[in-house]
Design goal:
With 270 residues, the protein is α+β, with helices and mostly antiparallel strands. It contains 12 helices and 15 strands. It is 33% helix and 24% strand.
Length: 270
């Protein structure tokens, strides 16, 4: 992870107007705006977030801000420019670094900073990032946040698009939910994403810790091999019970099948 303060040449004293965070492995950008930021000083694309009371700029608009400051990929003489700058391929971050984030349209630039130089209140903001997520029935998510809080979130609350609602009504698609880079939210491919802050603000707190949840999974969820051992039979017999609806897996992906321990114990007692 690399962090840069966004500053302006027009200001006599250096002031960090916002912070650009770049994740190398994912090639993803995020911009964080300080609490005391002035919308008249911050770049235009960021000030719109301030007007809405939002301080984290999503990956899409953060990348858009970056792209406004670098050579576009459809530039006619792009190959020659890359060669002259000793770049083997088009890389948004490397191109951004060549100019230190400067462009002809404004006077903003980037200045590298270390994580310990970020504003103190960012720690609270970052603590609301997502550590894990579990899809539940009826479009609910169980979301685990870094500060230890767990919240039950109704995803339908965030969806206005009818097509997205229809798509996510299919449990197999809804269950494919993934966590965005560094816990900035959750997403379903490129169809829909929900920021972590919205899930945190609108979710209902659950009186449960992640250790409690892990303990439950570890003690109450078993594999097909463990089920076969408990029932003193082969894995093929377990597969047959599943096919006949006598056992109901809670997860079945490829060769990975998970069952509730209580249901298997119920088979022993029959």
């Amino acid at each position: 992870m690399k962090i840069f303060a966004i500053r302006s040449d027009s200001m006599r004293k250096a002031k960090n107007l916002a912070y650009l965070i770049y994740y190398e492995n994912e090639k993803t950008f995020y911009i964080e705006i300080p609490e005391e930021a002035d919308e008249w000083e911050t770049p235009l694309i960021l000030s719109s977030y301030l007007k809405r009371g939002e301080k984290t700029v999503n990956a899409y608009h953060s990348k858009m801000w970056v792209q406004q400051r670098i050579i576009p990929p459809d530039r006619q003489n792009l190959g020659q420019i890359l060669k002259e700058n000793k770049l083997e391929k088009y890389d948004e971050f490397e191109l951004l670094m060549l100019s230190k984030g400067r462009c002809a349209q404004d006077d903003y630039y980037l200045y590298p900073v270390s994580p310990d130089k970020l504003p103190d209140d960012f720690a609270v903001r970052f603590s609301k990032r997502i550590e894990d997520v579990v899809p539940l029935k009826n479009n609910f998510l169980l979301v685990f946040f870094r500060n230890g809080e767990i919240k039950k979130c109704d995803v339908s609350f965030f969806i206005d698009n009818a097509n997205c609602k229809s798509l996510l009504s299919k449990h197999e698609i809804f269950s494919s939910v993934e966590i965005l880079t560094d816990g900035y939210g959750v997403s379903w491919g490129t169809v829909l994403s929900i920021p972590n802050e919205k899930l945190y603000d609108k979710g209902k707190a659950i009186d449960l810790s992640i250790d409690d949840f892990k303990s439950f999974v570890s003690n109450r969820v078993i594999s097909i091999s463990q089920a076969a051992e408990m029932l003193d039979c082969s894995k093929q017999n377990i597969s047959d019970l599943i096919k006949r609806g006598k056992l109901n897996p809670i997860r079945s992906t490829g060769n990975s099948i998970l069952l509730m321990k209580n249901e298997v114990i119920g088979r022993i007692m029959k």
